[in-house]
Amino acid sequence: xxxxxxxxxxxxxxxxxxxxxxxxxxxxxxxxxxxxxxxxxxxxxxxxxxxxxxxxxxxxxxxxxxxxxxxxxxxxxxxxxxxxxxxxxxxxxxxxxxxxxxxxxxxxxxxxxxxxxxxxxxxxxxxxxxxxxxxxxxxxxxxxxxxxxxxxxxxxxxxxxxxxxxxxxxxxxxxxxxxxxxxxxxxxxxxxxxxxxxxxxxxxxxxxxxxxxxxxxxxxxxxxxxxxxxxxxxxxxxxxxxxxxxxxxxxxxxxxxxxxxxxxxxxxxxxxxxxxxxxxxxxxxxxxxxxxxxxxxxxxxxxxxxxxxxxxxxxxxxxxxxxxxxxxxxxxxxxxxxxxxxxxxxxxxxxxxxxxxxxxxxxxxxxxxxxxxxxxxxxxxxxxxxxxxxxxxxxxxxxxxxxxxxxxxxxxxxxxxxxxxxxxxxxxxxxxxxxxxxxxxxxxxxxxxxxxxxxxxxxxxxxxxxxx
Length: 468
Fold this sequence. Notes:
Strand order of the largest sheet: 2-3-11-4-10-9-8
CATH superfamily of the domain at 10-160: Acid Proteases
Helix content: 10-25%
Largest sheet: 7 strands, mixed
Radius of gyration: 28 Å
Number of strands: 28
CATH topology of the domain at 10-160: Cathepsin D, subunit A, domain 1
Structural class: alpha+beta
Strand content: 25-35%
């Protein structure tokens, strides 16, 4: 209730400090206006999202007058939409939300309309519905309740106490597969709105002042986060779309740069070599005359010959002898295909380890074993998987590799060699089905936990603004 500690009705002046904790706004100066029925909050970039049966509204707030560099993103369920007439006689259709008002330790639910109050000295107006019979008004006084401070917006406490809020998330995917369905299912289960966007149907407006992403003839709304699941066949265009979201300022689970580096196997191995990450001996050349030299650089047979564009074990050949390796290399060159040659780690015995990394932590690991007679352990090729514990050395190399590529989410494949773990690949769009099935863990949920922590409504400060 809104009674003070002695049980008396609270006294308000014509202006008071209040908080809206469910929106993550710990301090606002509100004007008390008994002539208005419903309260109003300054809001802009107002967007409706979610199911039509239970729509939500996302909006931005400058809680501190004169400080447009302090920006909060808020969201709430829409309770109503009403026509509101302002004191100057202008009518406006406004979205109505319900949230708790907090004053001096007392809180109660109020209705708030959303309207752009950028020209007003107070970012909030308290109407009769919010006051009801809980409050006595002293029209000649200000700040009869304890004063708050805008300094709170510069403290870490704002992020640490930020409330849960509905996020708008885009999954860039062209496939209706397990991973895409799980990302939608888990996001909606957590109260978020998740939209699957076909990457190839996106197009971009390249503008220095207002870069945009368009989709099927319309500008895409503002997303809190983007989960890229870019297919290998559209890496170039897909990463351009991710780059556009980065330009807008959207949090992308994996960066365009990290995706590009992980997809180009030559680039990926060069990057791992630069960071001194253990991997099988690898060689690459463009000239047909260098076949013998390539084989000599890698070691003795058996050897692995791998197409640079290979995925899910396709385009990967085991050459049992040097002559067989030369034949495969010549065949690939005849197709004008780019490829790598690697030494074969015999002691791995057709097994590899897939480690799933989210937010700088290994959240699950599984051992994959190839189908009988197949040296490749890919689950797409009939391999099997089971949960496995990894050593500290394996964990360290997995995290080092993920960091080298700058990825927030990755599947790192490694072999257990006699001289330590060897990284085979860093996958920037790892599948969820195998790892969730083998580990029994909610990997999609862990990913959303990371996203929620990254995009909670802490203030966004723009450069070039003076401090208050």
